[in-house]
Amino acid sequence: MNSITTPSYAVHFNQIAYTELNKHLSQSKYSKIFILVDENTHNYCLPTFLAQINEDYDFEIIEIEEGEVNKNIHTCTQVWEVLSELDADRKSAMINLGGGVVTDLGGFVASCFKRGIDFINVPTTLLSMVDASVGGKTGVDLGPLKNQIGVINQPQMVLIVPEFLKTLNERQLQSGFAEMLKHGLIRDAAYWESLKAVLDFENIADFIYTSVTIKNEVVLQDPTEQNLRKILNYGHTLGHAIESYFLESPKHDLLLHGEAISIGMILEGYLSFKLTGLPESELNDIKASFLARYKKTTFTKTDIDTILTLLKFDKKNSHGNVNFVLLKNIGECAIDIKVPEDLLKEAFEFYAE
After folding, report:
1. Which residues form the 3-dehydroquinate synthase C-terminal domain (predicted)?
2. Which domains does the chain have, with CATH numbers?
3. For residue 98, which phi and psi values (nearest 5 degrees)?
């Protein structure tokens, strides 16, 4: 696979990724190199990664606790303190080896430490390969509120090695696959049809490449999310609110990101049918396709009311308005759509039917 280039870095795949990494480390002469991992990637990914490094670098390994609940400023502070204790300077670099929590948080930590040190992302989950790999978004949650604190800052490179997917269970793979389905819905109807036919994840590499290409094309046209890049948030306005609610609610089991976003895409599909002309046949296709993969979730009236109050914290909001990305049809979006509250509740009723 050819590398995918952006104006400031490249996404490299498979063995080429390690070739480019070794070349970069040899040429850059970093004073210190830190590798950020969580417990899982420390055990299951780090040995494989280190075996591909040619020269004998004195890597410092920093481990954080795994999971979205640890993607917060407290964890950042702990990492910054370790960097200081280990004499990191402005010529140091950080390699973020992990899923979206590690790459989002690690990129933010690196971007702020001593006003910015180099970082390299090595996503190890399907979600992080197709979502966090492109665009330069870094950051952490503020309590249960998703990605409220962060900056857009680009890595030196991104390395995508599908071999790491062998360390994931089916639920984690399906979570990442939801973002790939989103890429088809917002940009490419033929890709959506191809993804619907995927039954397992044995030969997913070409689809990963397509998803990264789609996201990169969008980000290249709108790097700071003024217009077009907003389409990448389809399903995320309600999906993030649902994810945040389940993160904090003691009476609910945790929902993975893709599981929450899959619900959000059905809900926002209904809003699209009502407001932006999405054909009913396409709405029903969206609902059936997601419910075939993701377990249906039950929402009480109290759940829904609380979720809707969380919408006011969505990052896309402007001037007190909640702005939605909706579909005109599969493959084409409308942005900055205002939605009446009664329709939001109707959407949950449609999901529950």
Report:
1. 176-317
2. 4-167 (3.40.50.1970), 172-352 (1.20.1090.10)
3. 170, -170
